[in-house]
Specification:
The chain is built from 3 helices and 9 strands, in the order H-H-E-E-E-E-E-E-H-E-E-E. The chain has helices at about 1-10, 10-15, 100-105; strands at about 25-30, 45-50, 55-60, 65-70, 80-85, 90-95, 110-115, 120-125, 130-135. The strands form 2 sheets. It has a 5-stranded mixed β-sheet. Helix 1 (about 1-10) packs across helix 2. The radius of gyration is 17 Å and the shape is globular.
């Protein structure tokens, strides 16, 4: 079947073939401020998984990092989503979506960088410009 697909769509596979072997690094960091009011916890909980792989839940103290790696599948449908919770707030977000991230995460060492802050979950592909993609 794959041979038949390649013979009908050789250019589609040729342009993406190198992308299939890239190991993408997903980093989620607890970047809550250090000056939180008394009684407000500085620990967050992150749980990431795909359709067939559960990375697991991990509590993160301030500045700790939740990391995992992924490769893109042939059809570019690889998806890892995560659940973040902190101080009664909860958010599901797509930490790696192949069709969205295959190019944008290559800029900085093949890394998708996420920062959990008190007003939302930010993304960066260069570790200097951050966008709040998932406000709480």
């Amino acid at each position: 079947m794959l041979l038949a697909l390649c013979s009908f769509y050789p250019l589609a596979f040729a342009s993406s073939e190198d992308l299939l072997f890239i190991n993408y690094h997903i980093h989620i960091t607890n970047d809550l401020p250090s000056d939180l009011p008394p009684g407000v916890p500085s620990q967050i909980y992150i749980h990431c998984k795909s359709r067939d792989k559960d990375i697991g839940e991990k509590p993160l103290k301030q500045h700790e990092d939740y990391t995992f790696d992924s490769k893109m599948n042939l059809f570019r449908t690889t998806l890892f989503f995560c659940h973040a919770s902190w101080e009664g707030k909860q958010m599901y977000f797509e930490a790696f979506k192949a069709s969205r991230d295959e190019h944008r995460c290559r800029k900085y060492h093949n890394s998708c960088l996420w920062s959990v802050r008190d007003d939302g979950i930010y993304f960066s592909n260069d570790n200097s410009t951050w966008n709040n993609e998932y406000p709480w």
